[in-house]
Design goal:
Blueprint lengths: L14 E3 L2 E3 L6 E5 L6 E6 L3 H20 L2 H17 L1 H12 L3 H21 L6 E3 L7 E8 L2 E5 L7 H13 L2 E5 L6 H13 L6 E3 L6 H9 L3 E7 L2 H11 L5 E5 L4 E5 L5 H13 L9 E7 L3 H11 L21 H16 L3 E4 L14 E4 L6 H4 L6 E7 L2 H9 L3 E2 L1 E5 L3 H10 L4 E4 L14 E2 L2 E2 L12 E8 L6
Parallel strand pairs: 7-8, 7-10, 8-9, 10-11, 12-13, 12-18, 13-16, 15-16, 18-19
Antiparallel strand pairs: 1-2, 3-4, 5-6, 6-22, 11-21, 14-15, 17-20
C-alpha cells in the first residue's frame, strides 16, 4: 500500500459485520483505485444479498440493547467517536484523498465537517422529547412519545465519503437506531476507517455494520425488500433514488433521499460583483465540481454580464490541478473515466450549440481523469449542461434581463436542492428568496456547509433533511399513548 499513515491500523480491507472484520460469503473482492493515477490502493470484499442479510440480522439483534440504553450513555459513546475522528484527521484525510482524489486541504475540511455531525447529534440524543396534549376529559391523559425507527439501511456516495456517512450514522445512532451502511464502491476505505474508530469508541457490536460491494443493485434490493429494515437513507442520483423509493414501497419503509441538483447562481445588476464572482468560483470548483450543491448554472443580469465574466476569467488561473496529496494542489481528478467522458460530452454539446469557450474545454495534462477548469459563456437553456447536473469543473454562464425572468429560468428544472443569488436590494432578497423553488437558498453567499442547517431539497432533489435539530426526526417514530379510567371510582 502506497499510503503513509501515522496509524496503519486505520486502513481496513475487510467489511464490518456484528463487530467483526469479515470477508464476503462468496469470497469475491474488488479493487480500490487512486483516481489521480489509477494505482491500486488495495481491495475489499465484494458482498452480495446474503452478506447484507447477515448484517441486517446483526443490526436487529443489537437493536433492543441499543435503544434501551440511556440517551446520556449514547451521548458519551458518540462524543468519544467524535473525539477519535478529530484526533485522526490527518490519517482519515490521507485515506480520503487517496481513494477520492480531492486535495488534502479539502479532505481535512471534510473530515472535520463530518465529525461535527457526530458531535452535534451526540448532544441531540439527550434532546429527544415528546408532548403531553390537552386532555379531552378529566379521566384521560394524552401523551406523545418519540421512539427510534429500528434498523436503518444507509447508502452513501463517493464525492464526500466521510461527511455523507457521519451525516446519516450520527443521527440514526443518537436516536437509538442500528445501521447497515453500504458505502460507494469507489470510496469504501473511509467508511471502514470510521468503523474502526467506532469500535475504539466503545460502540457495541452490531450497532454499526459496513457492507462493501462493487455493484449496489442487489444490496439495494435486499435493503428495500427485507422487512427488518424500517428505514432507507440514500444520497446519490435522482434515478437511483426513485428506484429505491419504489422498491421500499413494498414494505412501506420510511425513506430519506438526498438526490441530484441543478443549482442556479443569480447575479443581479446591483450585486457586489467581486464578492459574487469569488462565491461562484468557490462554489463551482470545490471538489472539482463534484458536489450536489455546486453551482451548475450562472445567471447574470445583462447590464453586468461582460463585467462579471471578466472577473470570473481572472480567477480561473488560480486553480492548480494535480494529485490531491500535493499541498499546492487545489483541484483533483474526476472520480473515474465515466465521469470525465460525461463532463466532456456536456462541454462539446454546448460548444456545438453556440456557447463561447473562454477557458478550458479539454483534458488537463495532470492525468487521464483531470478536466481543465472551464468557463462557458452565452449558454442557452437548450444546452445539456444547463439541464443536467454537470458534476465537473465547468461553469456555464447565461444572461437575463429582469428579476421575473431570472426566477423563471432558475425554477425551470425538476430539481430543487440549492440556489444562490447576489443583490444589495433587501426587498429583492425576500422576494427572490421566497420565490425560488429550492430547499436551500444562499443570499449573498455561496456554498457553505454546517451541522446547524437542515440540508435537503424539494421536488426531485429529495425527501427529508439532514443536520440541524430536524435531522434526528428522520430516525424517530411518533407514538400516541392514551390513558383512560383515571377518575376515582
Amino acid at each position: 500500500m502506497a499510503l503513509q499513515l501515522n496509524d496503519a491500523s486505520l486502513f481496513k480491507d475487510r467489511a464490518f459485520i456484528d463487530g467483526e472484520w469479515v470477508e464476503a460469503v462468496a469470497g469475491r473482492r474488488f479493487d480500490v483505485l487512486d483516481p489521480a493515477t489509477g494505482e491500486k490502493l488495495g481491495s475489499v470484499p465484494d458482498m452480495g444479498p446474503e452478506d447484507a442479510k447477515h448484517a441486517i440480522e446483526a443490526a436487529n439483534r443489537a437493536w433492543p440493547e441499543w435503544r434501551a440504553m440511556s440517551a446520556k450513555k449514547r451521548y458519551y459513546l458518540l462524543r468519544r467517536w467524535y473525539e477519535l475522528i478529530m484526533e485522526n484527521v490527518e490519517d482519515l484525510a490521507r485515506i480520503l484523498t487517496a481513494e477520492q482524489g480531492k486535495p488534502l486541504r479539502e479532505s481535512r475540511g471534510e473530515v472535520a465537517y463530518g465529525a461535527s455531525y457526530v458531535e452535534w447529534f451526540a448532544e441531540e440524543a439527550k434532546r429527544v422529547t415528546g408532548d403531553i396534549l390537552p386532555t379531552i376529559s378529566n379521566d384521560r391523559r394524552l401523551l406523545v412519545l418519540k421512539q427510534p425507527v429500528g434498523v436503518v439501511a444507509a447508502i452513501t456516495p463517493w464525492n464526500y465519503p466521510s461527511a455523507m456517512i457521519t451525516r446519516k450514522l450520527a443521527p440514526a445512532l443518537a436516536a437509538g437506531c442500528t445501521v447497515v451502511l453500504k458505502p460507494a464502491e469507489d470510496t469504501p476505505l473511509s467508511a471502514l476507517a470510521l468503523a474502526e474508530l467506532a469500535i475504539r469508541a466503545g460502540i457495541p457490536a452490531g450497532v454499526l455494520n459496513i457492507v462493501t460491494a462493487a455493484q449496489g443493485v442487489e444490496i439495494g434490493k435486499e435493503f428495500t425488500a427485507n422487512p427488518t429494515v424500517r428505514k432507507i437513507s440514500f444520497t446519490g442520483s435522482t434515478a437511483v433514488g426513485k428506484l429505491l423509493m419504489a422498491q421500499a414501497a413494498s414494505t412501506v419503509k420510511k425513506v430519506s433521499l438526498e438526490l441530484g441538483g441543478n443549482a442556479p447562481f443569480i447575479v443581479f445588476e446591483d450585486a457586489d460583483l467581486d464578492a459574487a464572482a469569488a462565491a461562484a468560483f468557490g462554489s463551482k470548483f470545490v471538489n472539482s465540481g463534484q458536489a450536489c450543491v455546486c453551482v451548475n448554472r450562472v445567471l447574470v443580469q445583462e447590464s453586468v454580464y461582460e463585467a462579471f465574466l471578466e472577473r470570473l476569467g481572472k480567477l480561473l488561473p488560480k486553480i492548480r490541478p494535480g494529485h490531491g496529496a500535493a499541498e499546492e494542489t487545489t483541484q483533483g481528478p474526476l472520480i473515474n473515466r465515466r465521469a470525465f467522458e460525461k463532463v466532456d460530452s456536456l462541454v462539446q454539446d454546448a460548444l456545438a450549440k453556440g456557447a463561447r469557450l473562454l477557458a478550458g474545454g479539454q483534458r488537463h495534462e495532470a492525468g487521464e481523469n483531470f478536466y481543465q477548469p472551464t468557463l462557458l459563456a452565452d449558454v442557452s437553456p437548450d444546452m445539456a449542461c444547463f439541464q443536467q447536473e454537470i458534476f465537473g469543473p465547468v461553469m456555464p454562464v447565461t444572461r437575463f434581463s429582469t428579476e421575473e425572468e431570472a426566477i423563471r429560468i432558475a425554477n425551470d428544472t425538476p430539481y430543487g436542492l440549492a440556489a444562490y443569488f447576489f443583490t444589495r436590494d433587501v426587498g429583492r432578497m425576500w422576494r427572490v428568496g421566497e420565490a425560488l423553488e429550492y430547499g436551500m437558498v444562499g443570499i449573498n453567499e455561496g456554498m457553505g456547509g454546517s451541522e446547524l442547517i437542515p440540508f435537503g431539497g424539494i421536488k426531485e432533489s429529495g425527501i427529508g433533511r439532514e443536520g440541524s435539530k430536524y435531522g434526528i426526526e428522520e430516525y424517530l417514530e411518533i407514538k400516541y399513548l392514551g390513558f383512560a379510567g383515571l377518575a376515582r371510582n
